[in-house]
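Request:
You are asked to prepare a plain-text protein record giving the amino acid sequence and the backbone structure tokens, at your earliest convenience.
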Amino acid sequence: MIIAAALLTLVLAGLFFVGFKRLYTLSQQTKWLINYASWFDNRQPFLLFALMLGLLGCVLISTVVYYPLYSYNSAAAPFSDGKNIFWLTVFLTGMAFFGTQILLFYFSFRFRSKSASTASFFRGSSKLELTWTVVPAICFLGLFFWNQILWQRITSFKETDSVKIEVVGEQFNWKVRYGGHDHELGKTSFQLVSDTNPLGIDQTDSASLDDFMPVQMHVPKGRNVTLVLRSKDVIHSFYVPFFRTKMDAVPGMHTRMQFTALYSTAEMRELRNDPSFNYEIACAELCGRMHFAMKMILVVDEPEEFDAWYNQQESWVSELARNKLRLTTNAQYP
């Protein structure tokens, strides 16, 4: 609501100044408009200053309103390590934003056109140029190397005692596949993709026969989870807001990410005092007109609950055979 109001303010301001330019052009031909244009020209810097205060007010109000959405700790490791660098980046970019915008409006107001004023020549300052070049460069390099260290820690995969899950993105939903009782994902091929085999699973591979594809993704709390991501059409991005993590799913290649959930779904419901809370998987890459609907529920179970759920799942081969039998029976006995 507040963001929409800020955008509307910008649009109205733009239309206002465009209209004034047109009005000023007409005033050259119409005498009574000349006085009005002169009156407006004298007050334009003050209106510009008022616009700056309005915009900064919208930014500050939006920050206060939406702060709770970004103030929580990450519910997964190792992404919780990124909180400090996140807030440092917000602070530095915020300072740069407010500083440049305030100076921009100030100079527009301070050096506004006056009938008795004359412009002075300014050759430049090497010290000033060096300062605003070196300081941002140091900040950028510091953030860059800190990010590289953090990224190396995040992408250092550990396969020991890891739950491996395949995640496939397509317009406009997610599909997940588990390795079944042998905990090994079977082979796939895009040539095998069909209405009954949406992931192109190779049935000649014995490791694929016990794989299963649930409607919701389940992961155990406190155990390492490895995701193998791919896409069937365009670039998607696997994003869990409360984990503060995302990874692109790219057509024609496999990308991987790992995490360890720190809080179960039940624990998060208690912490947030929200019985309806669920972790949500979203797509963070604009992938088409139904991009907004590309969601999936992620359930974080206690380890014993996850094992019980895992052992109860029906393999995709058994589910396919059951569906075929049901369709055949319905056809014979309408």
